[in-house]
Every structure is written in C-alpha cells, then in structure tokens.
Write a structure and sequence with these properties.
The chain is mainly α. It is built from 8 helices and no strands.
C-alpha cells in the first residue's frame, strides 16, 4: 500500500503524458509553453512580493506589531481568543512566513497541546495571507482596484480567527 502512495504523482504525470500523446498533443511543447507563462507571471508578481515582505519585516522590527497586540489584548480576551496569539492575528493576513514564525514561537513557548498552541495551529491552517494573495492574484490578472476584496477577505480572516479559538475550546476544552 505504501508503494502505491509513493507512485501516485509519477503515475499521474505518466498518465497525463500518455493521454496527451494519444490525442496527438506536443506534450513537451505544451509543458515548455506553460513553464514560460509561469515565469511571466513570476516576473509580474515579484515586485509586489518584495515590497510586502519588506513592509512586514519593518513593522516587526519597529515594534509596531507588538504595540498593536497589547492594545487589542483586552478585546480579544472578551471574545474568547487568547491574548497571546495577538501577534499571529496581526501578522497572518500580511505574511505567511512571519505568521509561521510567530506560530512556531507560540507552540514552542506554550507547548503543542496547550490551548494557545492548538489555537495558533488551527488559526494558521484556517486562514490565508490575505494581502499576499490579493497582491499575487490581482497582480497576475492586472487588476488595479481591489474595491471590496480586501474588506471581505479581512472579514473572513476575523471570522476564521474567532472560529478557530471557538473550535479548539469546544473540541479540547479551554
């Protein structure tokens, strides 16, 4: 059974190549063309990614994220979110790497089986790096005005953060 799982990806690639050859498609040419288009998209989104990551690191280094965390802690406690995850709440919509670092720090500090560690893990798994995703996808599509996309995505993030804390509390107790 383990061998079957190890062979899923190679067998899928082989099946797609054989299907294309049976339909008389230049499989290698199509692969090369798709890779070229992928590089074009990469060239379009790299500047936005660099700017976004630079801004995140500047905010962390300046201490602004920590100050915002302390400001929001009383409100979060009232809605059932542990105040220790405030840094994760603030960083996650902006940077996946920074959020993963904050989450790893929380899990390392409080333990993977603690309410805080579990909440951080569920939050990491149930939310998205909103600004990064919008920058990448809208940048690749050439969309300049995000209009309602950013507020709607941030509302979804807030709902996911609250639901994560609630789910951990219901399933594991808190």
């Amino acid at each position: 059974m383990e061998l079957l799982f190890q062979m899923v990806v190679p067998l899928t690639i082989a099946a797609v190549a054989l299907w294309g050859m049976a339909r008389r498609v230049d499989v290698y040419g199509a692969l090369a063309e798709g890779a070229g288009e992928g590089l074009g998209v990469l060239i379009k989104i790299v500047p936005a990614m660099v700017a976004l990551l630079t801004a995140v690191y500047m905010l962390r280094a300046s201490g602004l994220l920590e100050a915002l965390g302390q400001l929001l802690a009383p409100l979060l406690t009232k809605v059932g979110v542990p105040p220790e995850v405030v840094g994760l709440l603030l960083v996650r919509p902006v940077s996946g790497n920074a959020a993963l670092g904050v989450g790893a720090e929380l899990i390392s500090t409080y333990g993977p089986d603690s309410f805080i560690g579990r909440t951080a893990a569920v939050m990491l798994g149930s939310t998205e790096t909103t600004f990064y995703t919008i920058a990448v996808y809208f940048g690749a599509a050439g969309v300049k005005k995000t209009r309602y996309a950013v507020p709607a995505a941030l509302c979804a993030d807030v709902a996911a953060f609250l639901a994560a804390a609630w789910a951990v509390r219901v399933v594991f107790g808190g």
